[in-house]
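Sample entry (196 residues):
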Amino acid sequence: MFMRLFFSLLLLLLSFSANAQPLEACIRIADKTKLATARFFGSDFPYWYNVGLAHTETKCRFVISKDGHGSVGYFQLTPKFLDPMLRPYFPKYTENHLDHFYAFAYYLRSLYKEPLWIMYQRYNGGDLVLRECSRANSMRWEDCKAQCRRKNVCVWFDGLTCRQYRNACDINYSYSKKVYQNGQYYRTGEDKLKFW
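Predicted structure, serialized as tokens:
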């Protein structure tokens, strides 16, 4: 109850912020995202959270990352890790092509878990969230976060020197919040699946 109220107030505050708005680039990819999401999740899946993920990752721009892993596209798919899974079915997934959208939805489907926040955190930070929820004996975001024990990671390099560290728990547990918040800008219906 408290968390719903908290998130509602947070969304209200964000809606008054000058930066809180849907991005034109995200509106342009919403139809392709919806099509790919429906193919692998069905038409009841709230595809707007996948648009929110692209908003979070790249502001819905097709980019090649300099993250050291070569992540590509709107959804920052990483061929270094995903090529064996995706290339046989979606040969053009590393290009600005419909294959990119299908590959994203196909991969996300492999991570599917309800509530949806867990799936999005797995997309961002792997399966550690599953262990944390298991330790918490709960699927509630707050309970799982309380069980998170991860290292600090460098988020800002200046040459070979790290200028800023952040805790990996904070990074990963803020990700699902960002996807949820950004997804609200592209919402076209009611959630038929539980996000939180």
